[in-house]
Each structure stands twice: as C-alpha cells, then as structure tokens.
Design brief:
Mpv17_PMP22; membrane; mainly alpha; transmembrane; 5 helices; 170 residues; transmembrane helix; Peroxisomal membrane protein 2; 81% helix
Length: 170
C-alpha cells in the first residue's frame, strides 16, 4: 500500500523476464532457438518493459474505473465498454509499443522496428485477442480493482512466453 508503483513495477520486471526465459526454453525445445544457452539480455529487455509498463497499468485501471465505475453485477454494458476500450484501443497501441520498443532495445533501430512491426504485428494482435479478451473480461468483471495489476501480471507471464517465441522466430 505504501509503494504500489514500486511493488507492481518490480513484480512485472520479474514476471516478464521469467516469461521470456520460459519462452527461450520453449524455443530450445522446439529447436528454433538461434542462441546457444540463455540470452539474459533479451530477458532483461522484456523485464524492463514490465518495470515501465506496470505503472501504466496501475493508472490505466484507476482511470478506467474512475470514468466507468465498477458495477454491482459483473457482466454489464459498463464491463463490455471497458473491454472494448481495453482490447479495441489500449491493446493494439500497447502491442505496437512493445514490438517497437523491443526492436529498438535489441539494436535494430527504426528499420528493425519497421521490420518487426511488418513481420509480427497482425499475427501478434490476433494471438493477443485470443488470450486477452477472455482474460480481460474476467479481470474487469470479477477481479477486485486493487488486484487487477497482479492478475494482469499473471496473465502477462503466459503472454510473454507467447510473444517472446513469436518475436524471436528465426
């Protein structure tokens, strides 16, 4: 309660970093890994995005609930509107930011960012919706507002594995 952004950011750093490490494990098992061993720098890049992204999620859910207050019943038009905002506006923009930032952080520059966006954005967005529409509906309808970022971090662990594998296919 005293330092929610620090706690949420630190938690997300480790969740996303561990998610990428698991993604690297999946790549090794599939035989698609281009790296021998563990790419710790890549895991830290994902972790840094979690560290930076958690405060966004904290305020995002705060303002989403401020402008569209939770209702007594879990499944209402308000919940549906929040889901539409979350997956129709926030998710596509955040995904573009994630793909772009990771491309730049791995040294690809603007050309690497454009290349990664062209190669991955639409497939990643569809994969995002397959996981996040049901997960976000559960979050917005049933999860206590103070626990929403923690819930998102748990789902983000799974999403990081999926995204890590998608973005690092040879």
């Amino acid at each position: 309660d005293k330092h929610p952004l620090l706690v949420k950011g630190t938690t997300a750093f480790f969740v996303l970093g561990l998610g990428d490490l698991c993604g690297q494990g999946v790549e090794h098992l599939m035989g698609t890994s281009t790296v021998h061993g563990v790419d710790w720098i890549r895991a830290v890049r994902f972790g840094l995005f979690g560290l930076i992204g958690a405060p966004w999620a904290h305020y995002y859910f705060y303002y989403l609930d401020y402008y569209f207050p939770p209702t007594e019943r879990p499944l209402t038009w308000t919940t549906l509107l929040k889901l539409l905002i979350d997956q129709g506006l926030q998710a596509p923009a955040l995904l573009a930011l994630i793909i772009s930032a990771l491309a730049i952080l791995k040294g690809g520059g603007i050309s690497g960012m454009k290349s990664d966006m062209q190669a991955n954005y639409w497939d990643a967005l569809i994969a995002n919706w397959k996981l996040w529409i049901p997960a976000s509906l559960i979050n917005l309808a049933f999860v206590k507002p103070s626990l929403r970022v923690l819930y998102v971090n748990v789902v983000f662990f799974i999403w990081t594995i999926i995204l890590s594998v998608m973005l690092n296919e040879p």
